[in-house]
Amino acid sequence: MHPNTNRALMYVQANRVVEMLVTIEPQYRMMISLGTSSDSDAACLAIIEDIKAKLPLSIETGFGPQARRITFENALAKISERLEHKYHAYSIFFSLLKQEIRAYNELLELVHVTCADLRRAVLGETVVSEVLEETQRTLLMHEMPRIWRKRSYPSTKSLRAWISDHLLRIAFFKDWTRLIVTYVEDYKTLSPLPPTFNIGAFYYPKGLFSAILQSSARSIALPIDQLKFSYEVLDQKEERLALQSSTASFEYYLSFANGAQWDYELHQIVDCTSQQRTHRLPPLLCKLVPKDTDNLDSTNVYECPVYLTASRAVSASQASKHLVGTVAIPCSETESFWTTRSIAGILEIDE
Asked: Which residues form the Dynein heavy chain C-terminal domain (predicted)?
């Protein structure tokens, strides 16, 4: 067994012991971290206020209503004039952006409504329902309530880590809407698309790949079934600066569970030499090429599966939901070597 695999096993076992202890007196964990009194209701109210203070009511698109610039909605209506004949290829990205913003806004609304209802219940202004009771219990255990998990994207993070990650996701789409507004107003801006996509921020990562596929097919006038994805690891700063607006690069957080890391000198993944369980892969340049294009030497390439979370697919029925796709990565050993180790990439690091 690889040393990192043994460490991963001990990590899982330790977490299970901690979770068991927390379920005995869950309120103590949050009361200590928040510095509140011994009253679990007071601790719950403090958690609610902390969540409401950190998470916005919705994603603020564009530069806000008080800005002198045009709104995000007006920019989308005018962007076809700037793009001209290229609008047909770019429009799929704008539809994806609106879909992502709508999904995040619905989740944010649910979070704030639940917090408001739970606050009234804790203060005795309304009846405590079974859902609110479960929500209070999980908040005191520093976990996401079940009602949020049903609406949220898959995540294995604790409550505070989930909030911090959620804010980073929101910031990505907020910056994208501002980029579109700037693109319409300032002709010095070359593209309405981000230079690098953080695919881990997407509610529906597969939707981004579909958008890339459809956009490329429209641009090069080839049927979708005649195209395939091709990846290149950009581990040099010069390569990143050379990216053109017509291509799209995606930044993955890849965790090589049983011990693998990227070697910047050999430009390939190698057996892990450190005790760190997760390693970040450099940005990936994703391109669409015809299917008849010759591939790299398959003996030096590992078709690495990419999952949403470190839990991967807990069952065959959930494989399609949690599996994002596969990425061909240069490697130092044969593909069977990495397959035996169950090396896989994840978009969310378990913190």
From this structure: 13-346
